[in-house]
Structures are given as structure tokens and as C-alpha cells.
Amino acid sequence: MLILYTIAITFKVRCCIIIYHIYCSDWRKKKGWTQEELAIRAEIGPSTIGEIETYHKRPKFDEVVKIANALGITVEQLQQKP
């Protein structure tokens, strides 16, 4: 049980490191959307989108997935400039 728990923690930490920098605003602007439009489509608060884009908030993995899905791209693409 301890081994599985350790693996889960290691995986979660690696995910957070990998997704720390995303190009949310670049992809959003490419679509011609406002922060509010992306927030509605991703079902995330507009202030959260703003905080992620200005690097005041580290996005949670589920937020990154929602943003990528709303933009119609993969999480991997979201980590790269459009």
C-alpha cells in the first residue's frame, strides 16, 4: 500500500511540474476569444483564467484539461506556443 501511495504522489508532483507553464492566452487569442469566453467554455471562473494567464496561479491538472478541451487541443499542445 505504501508503494502505491508513493508512486501516486510522485506522479502527481511530476504532472504539476510538467504543466506549470501553459500558453493559455496565446491559444485563447488565436481563437479570438476573451478570457470570459474561455472561462465559460472551460467551465472555470474568469478570474481563475486571468490568474493562470498572468502566472499568479499554478493551474491544477483538471483545470489544464478543461482549458485544453475547451480550446479543442491536447494538454501537450497547450504547453507549446500555437
Description:
The protein is mainly α. The protein has one domain (2-78): lambda repressor-like DNA-binding domains (434 Repressor (Amino-terminal Domain), Orthogonal Bundle), CATH 1.10.260. Helix content is 68%, strand content 0%. It is built from 6 helices and no strands. Helix 3 crosses helix 4 and helix 3 (35-42) crosses helix 5. The N and C termini lie far apart (42 Å). The model is unreliable at 1-11 (pLDDT under 50).
Helix and strand layout, with pairings?
Layout: H1 2-18, H2 24-31, H3 35-42, H4 46-53, H5 61-71, H6 75-78
Helix pairs in contact: 3-4, 3-5
List keywords for this structure.
6 helices, single chain, disordered N terminus, 434 Repressor (Amino-terminal Domain), 82 residues, mainly alpha, 0% strand
Brief sketch in words of this structure:
The chain is mainly alpha-helical.
What portion of residues is helical? 55-70%
Secondary-structure-based class equals: mainly alpha
| Largest β sheet strand count, sense and barrel closure | none
Provide the CATH superfamily: lambda repressor-like DNA-binding domains
Shape annotation = globular
Query: How many domains?
Result: 1
Q: Mean of the pLDDT scores?
A: 82
What is the top-level CATH class? Mainly Alpha
Classify the fold: give the CATH topology: 434 Repressor (Amino-terminal Domain)
